[in-house]
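Look over both lines:
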Amino acid sequence: MSAFFLCFAAWSAIALGMDRHHEDALGREATARRLLHLRRAGWLLLALSLWLAAHPPGEAPASLGVTAWAVALSVAAVAVTATVTWLPTRALAFAGTALVSGVLASARGW
């Protein structure tokens, strides 16, 4: 569960790091520096989610965690695409909620 939420937050940051999506979601243009920071944050979140998936709690093998992460990565990408297309003004709120949920789910071992 944490992998999906963190991937959703990561893809959202990467999407909001694009001029068009940033302007649609926030109603204003962003500086090049802000867009770069959003994209970097997204890639760091993806790396963090992969690392967490590769180190599952308990006796689960890492390969199972990485396989589940790949599925979560794909589903989150489709969900973010739908969000920035049909609900761009809510994309930032959804991303923030997903980030907090992902951290809490990871702390609980989900």
